[in-house]
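Lecture 7, part 2: worked example. A protein chain together with adenosine monophosphate.
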Amino acid sequence: MSDIQWRAEEAYEYPLLIKNLLFAPAAYNPEQEIVYRGELRFTYAQFRERVRKLAAALIDMGVKPGDTVAVMDWDSHRYLECFYAVPMIGAVLHTINIRLTPEQMIYTISHAEDMVLMINAEFLPLLGHIKSRIDTIRNYILLTDNREAEQLPVDFTGEYEALLAAAQPLQDFPDLDEKTRATTFYTTGTTGMPKGVYFSHRQLVLHTLSGLVSLASNPAQGSFHREDVYMPLTPMFHVHAWGIPYMATMLGVKQVYPGKYVPEHLLRLIDQEKVTYSHCVPTILHMLLKHPASEKTDFSRWKVIIGGAALAKSLCAAALQKGIDVYSGYGMSETCPILTISQLTAAELEHNSLEEQISMRCRTGTPFSLVHVKVTDEKMQPVRDDDRSAGEIIVRAPWLTQGYLKDQSNSRKLWAGGWLHTSDVACWNERGSVRITDRLRDAIKVGGEWLSSLELEDILISHPAVSEAALLGQHHERWGEIPFALVVLKEGQAVTAAELTHHMREFIDKGLVPKEAVLMKVKFVEALEKTSVGKSDKMAMRAKYSI
Ligand code: AMP
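Predicted complex, written out as structure tokens:
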């Protein structure tokens, strides 16, 4: 070995760990605020102390590296504390999707092997309902805003605040291997039971750093910087609220956690706390703008990234008119999530018409730093970058899930050919900016929730009068999409659309499908379009019925 390559024996090989995201803000901004529902206020110094106490309380409870700690809560300061404390002791944070059906929830808790469950008092009735079918959980921790005695359906180890009050703050956090799994959660994007994705410390740190480079470095529009006041409007259980709480904490900005999303309450927080930076699915923005209280809300300082579904030009225009600086971001559960954003440069703001700017803000966007995006045909060859030829978006980035938990076959499909396959169909231009046009898969996204078309079809077909059914997503102003069913009846049978909706509701009531399925529209047809190998041809159906 040459002299130049000598490495000092004591040189410290700095691991990319979540605990290291906490140093800077606590040092330069210890008095900055973290606000819960406009009611509770903590400084960053207190926040860090609470993270240390939570870590100690979990260790006292017997949580060991590799164990899984699950959370069921609305967006809260407590959730932010869990984002840090759980991975910092080497445990895995499972952010449970509180909108799953009870059946899916039972499945994900046992599949992830959750050992501790921190649960908001609001979900205790649900816990009462499912507790007999959960056998992995050793400790329950109660999360509550009013500390009155609750009716507890199981034995609780303690209430969150009481546990923190009793704990001695942990001073030293281990130097873990940076590839240690930090978080996990489940995506319901495709058919069958939800699939688990997972992210390491290293991945979350790199997503945070790259996110800040990409979001903060465009001074002309939509920049996220130290003077901002941040409030998430995509739930913390869904892909770590797009990872932006980690970025906000690293920046040391004021953060506002709104609890349950209630429109008038959110609008009040935007005003009162002077929120300047948020992110949400189009449905939430639509809901806020339609609310009567929005007339009196001052949106003029508010920057919002829209993702999870395409930002429609009409919604973009309505938001801009209210003074909201709105633009698109794209990603998915499997990708940690952010892959692209659509910020405008100073030149684009100066030289392009409003209409052109709206089109640019609604594009899926250009890649974050370190993200490598390609739009390819079935042979994984890039399609022409003429903004017209369509192909699948495939990606590489340092923070993509390396597979699905305990699911080899789907993991292989996801990573076929060494690129992560998004199943999103898009065009791209010569600047590498992508524009999603469709989805390869057939799941239907209603107001941010996925419905599996195959599951809904199975339910319809289980009705005695139904021979065949195909479910498509139909564009809807309010919900983004609603399920649209094409139904072929058995000979000599009759049934009405209302009776089929009633049939669907029985499955909703049993917790087998999300309640959004009730929005289904039904059209009776003679036959369904088929491909040459006899599969449902949904593309042909869309064309025929203009869906
Ligand atoms: P999820 O895994 O639930 O976050 O859903 C991810 C999916 O939402 C992606 O695969 C896309 O189909 C869709 N999606 C996310 N962001 C956008 C966007 N900006 N435009 C269009 N579709 C999007």
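Residues 187, 189, 307-310, 328, 330, 332-333, 337, 364, 422, 424, 436, 439 surround adenosine monophosphate (CB under 6 Å). The longest strand covers residues 466-476. Keep this in mind for problem set question 3.
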